[in-house]
């Protein structure tokens, strides 16, 4: 039941994200006078629809995306110089122009999308991705402010009885041959709160950990709070090989993938994890940080596409960090909702689920800005090209160029659509944008 509930929550939030994404396109388009003929969530057969004004709203059977149809997405042939259709790509472009022109009602050419100025086109096309970013902001705000941010404290969660060498099972029982851990030998106990190390007050685990690692094997005075009273202890760390960490706190590996270790002071204690409610002012920074991390991942998409082809048509195995589509998102949501473990309750599962869905919306925001049709970024690139040509012509005092013939990008859009379809992603466009 927990698994199914997680899948259901993910599906509802995903469909809501798709619906709001398309609202982000539709509202500014209507505001600028563009005729919006269709607004649908899903693809395939129509399950329900209702026409209000000039727009048909509805839900389709396959929840793999959605679309708004903006009348006149492509400039008609006469507006772009009646280019000949000598090749199959030219014929595809010509068919797209004809289909777009057929949607424009007599006397309403001024309401076609291609007639908009470049800034207005950018607002319409960016409205969808920005809506996904706003959704991510709201979901992360709920998690960070409502459930809290996990932080390590100077209160000890566990005190090791022996020094476990790197690479060994950290949970194994101590053997007679193992070296005794200094913390336990000095009398440190779980629940102790370390107040100072070597005369230096500490207020965070990072501070304490840095001091311990830099101490070496020197005897050190430690003050802890235990049962409301201060207790003075003396700890003599041992020098042990422990993982090296980079500036971001991640373990360092060499070129062969082997964990890099360095000799540091070791006591054998671990911190408790507490949850601190974030402030509203901390949320934008967290969203920006996660967005940048997503950009770094999206930059590796070409390599991931190659891996996807190899796993689909070859003998390659799919990695744990490979691309996932909607089915994969649902599976992950179910696993998050049904995960078991000490200290894991429904509140933590819900927070993890909302955080995952926030990450999904950030991914949709970044992914849709890729400058390829039929993604929103492809329409943004076309609008910028058109606007750039007009600005150059204005500076050179040349006649104003006509609209950019974006129908020429339709063959490329079909190719990208095939790749997206293989992923099972919810990002594509139909005479506008689909998500």
Question: Are there runs of 5+ residues with pLDDT below 50, and where?
Answer: 425-435
Structural class: alpha+beta
Strand content: 15-25%
Query: Number of helical runs?
Result: 11
Number of strands: 11
**Major sheet summary line:** 4 strands, antiparallel
User: Could you give the order of the helices and strands?
Assistant: HEEHHEHEEHEEEEEHHHHHHE
Overall pLDDT level: 84
Based on CA inertia axes, which overall geometry fits? elongated
**What strand line-up does the widest sheet have?**
5-4-6-7
**Backbone CA Rg:** 29 Å
How far apart are the first and last residues' alpha carbons, in Å? 29 Å
Share of helix among residues?
Answer: 40-55%
Describe the structure in your own words.
The chain has 435 residues and is an alpha+beta fold. Helices cover 44% and strands 20% of the residues. It is built from 11 helices and 11 strands. The protein has helices at residues 2-31, 88-103, 118-147, 182-186, 205-215, 283-298, 301-313, 326-338, 346-368, 376-395, 410-423; strands spanning 36-52, 55-70, 149-159, 193-197, 200-201, 220-226, 229-235, 238-243, 261-266, 269-276, 432-434. Strands 5-4-6-7 form a 4-stranded antiparallel beta sheet. Strands 1-2-11 form a 3-stranded antiparallel beta sheet. Strand 4 (193-197) and strand 5 form a beta hairpin. The two termini are 29 Å apart. The relative contact order is 0.16.
């Amino acid at each position: 039941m927990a698994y199914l509930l997680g899948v259901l929550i993910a599906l509802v939030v995903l469909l809501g994200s798709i619906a709001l994404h398309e609202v982000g396109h539709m509202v500014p388009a209507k505001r600028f006078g563009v005729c919006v003929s269709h607004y649908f969530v899903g693809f395939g057969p129509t399950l329900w629809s209702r026409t209000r004004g000039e727009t048909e709203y509805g839900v389709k059977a396959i929840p793999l995306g959605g679309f708004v149809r903006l009348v006149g997405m492509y400039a008609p042939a006469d507006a772009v110089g009646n280019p000949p259709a000598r090749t199959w790509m030219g014929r595809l472009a010509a068919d797209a122009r004809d289909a777009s022109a057929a949607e424009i009602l007599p006397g309403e050419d001024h309401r076609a999308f291609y007639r908009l100025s470049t800034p207005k086109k950018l607002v319409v096309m960016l409205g969808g991705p920005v809506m996904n970013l706003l959704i991510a902001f709201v979901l992360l705000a709920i998690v960070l402010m409502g459930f809290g941010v996990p932080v390590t404290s100077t209160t000890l969660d566990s005190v090791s009885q022996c020094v476990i060498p790197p690479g060994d099972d950290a949970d194994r029982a101590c053997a007679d041959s193992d070296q005794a851990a200094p913390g336990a030998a000095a009398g440190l106990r779980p629940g102790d709160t370390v107040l100072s190390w070597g005369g230096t007050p500490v207020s965070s685990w990072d501070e304490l950990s840095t001091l311990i690692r830099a101490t070496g094997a020197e005897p050190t005075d430690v003050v802890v709070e235990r049962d409301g009273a201060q207790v003075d202890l003396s700890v003599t760390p041992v020098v042990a090989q422990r993982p090296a960490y980079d500036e971001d706190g991640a373990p360092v590996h060499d070129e062969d993938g082997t964990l890099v270790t360095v000799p540091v002071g070791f006591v054998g204690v671990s911190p408790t994890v507490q949850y601190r409610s974030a402030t509203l002012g901390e949320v934008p920074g967290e969203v920006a940080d996660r967005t940048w991390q997503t950009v770094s991942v999206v930059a590796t998409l070409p390599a991931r596409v190659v891996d996807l082809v190899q796993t689909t048509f070859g003998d390659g195995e799919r990695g744990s960090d490979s691309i996932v589509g909607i089915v994969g998102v649902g599976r992950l949501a179910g696993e998050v909702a049904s995960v078991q473990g000490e200290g894991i309750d429904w509140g933590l599962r819900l927070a993890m689920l909302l955080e995952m869905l926030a990450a999904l919306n950030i991914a949709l925001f970044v992914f849709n800005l890729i400058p390829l049709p039929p993604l929103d970024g492809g329409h943004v690139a076309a609008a910028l090209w058109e606007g750039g040509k007009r600005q150059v012509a204005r500076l050179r005092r040349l006649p104003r160029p006509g609209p950019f013939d974006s129908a020429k990008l339709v063959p490329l859009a079909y190719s990208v659509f095939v790749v997206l379809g293989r992923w099972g992603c919810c990002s594509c466009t139909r005479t506008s944008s689909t998500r």
